[in-house]
Structure prediction request, 554 residues.
Amino acid sequence: MMTERTIGRLSAAAIGRQPPLRLGARRPSGPPRARRLPVERQWPSWLIVLVQVLAFVLVIAAWEAAAYIGMVDAFFWSRPSQIWQTLTVFFTEGDAFVDIAYTFRATIMGFALGTLLGSLLGLSFWWSRNYAAIVQPFVICFESIPKLALAPLIILIFGMGLSSKVAIATALTLVVSTLTTYAGVRAVDPDGERLFYSLGATRWQVFRKLIVPAVLPWTISVLRVNIGLALTGSIVGEFIASQHGLGRTILYAGQTYEISLVWVAVLVLSSLSIAMYVGVSWLERWLRRDLVR
Amino acid sequence: MTAVTKLELKDVTTTFATPTGPFQALAPVSFSLEEGRFVSLIGPSGCGKSTLFNIVAGLQPPSGGAVLIDGEDATGTIGRVGYMLQKDLLLSWRTVLDNVILGMEIRGVSRKEARGRAEPYLRRYGLGGFEHQYPRSLSGGMRQRAALLRTLLVDTDIILLDEPFGALDAQTKGHMQEWLMRIWTEFRKTVVFVTHDIEEALFLSDEVYVMATRPGRVVEHLTVDFPRPRHRGLVTEPGFVALKQHCLSLLAEPGDTALVA
Prediction:
């Protein structure tokens, strides 16, 4: 492929004035055939949804059937009917709501704390170039550490309770917020600052009336990334040591070969994740509309 | 009418340290402006017009010399003059009205009072109906109007305009010049105007300083005493054309004399 291209280009250069010939492309001598713009006909949305539902049902049915005839080992993979049964038990007799609330709380707290602290840290770099230069390398170092590798240490320090999960979620979200906010700070037009100072502004006025509103869209843009990171953080915290939470349920079910419970917990976790993502998207839209123009 | 000196520059210089030794960006520049005058600076790129403005606005300390406002030393103090850059720098998250009151707000006027003061001006100077719009829905000319009003509504007697119409198309520029003239006669501020456009400078100004580069310095001071109010037709009158020719020859590089003659 590469050599072909090179030869093609070389020979074209050697020929000089002639247009470059692509090897393998035959040029018809006559006028080019009239061609129409290829347009894909758009399906109505009900048809799209129908196909999606059918595909889902098909996969589930195939799984169930394969488990029934023994093509899939139901001991390792479980089967849809069993998962459904476990799901109802999990919600009616099990700890579903305790676990959901536990994971949700840790995630939201870590998300809020990490985003807030990170944004404040990023904004603080505006105040002093020397301070920013001193702290920057440390932030980058912290960024490069796989924070999840520190999780066992965090559990040791903060204990088995909620605070350790919050701490891991915070560690994951903090750096992203800091770096994004600082990128926003650096993107502020220096002429804007000159304008403020020419009007006799104090540094605090420049910060409050120019820097903070200009950086806000940057901070908001990481919210959706951060909610996912915070969830990952709290789940990993629960994996390592916890008495509640969906992460702990998954680990426990896996260790006791209760595969259907693993699936149930993953399912609930995904739903929680989607719900939080949608919530944050709403928050983001609301913030953009009312705070940022 | 007694002439009161409003702004005075005394031997203002700027020198940068470069690897090859000190580089003089601005040779000693001195001039004095009388109250209420419209004065333009013209010159090639790199002649230090913007540096001069930064020094007057207190955004950059001069290497030597002093800036006097009303006879007092104002070197290195900010907020003494209104300064408008070529970019309008309107804040996208504020309405036009709230952008215009920015200067007053920074000086401690409450938002409510500042809005009350600014509103009649917006209506009077062609921004009526746009008060509560956001800047992105404004045309280039409108944005410059808002930026200029923001500068004018600050209680400074001197305003510096750094190529405010440089990015506008010719027609809008003409409208804006007339609009600026009207505003200037009503506000009676001392205006220092930087432009690349000789015709614009001569059409608007009472005085023109022609600058040259390497080092940046003033090479000529012209008085432009065409009667006011001036009309567009002025630019084709022989006296105006002769003055324009003179400025062109002052600004010409040694290499392109043929172009001017």
Notes: Chain B has nine helices and ten strands. Confidence is low (pLDDT under 50) at residues 257-261 of chain B.
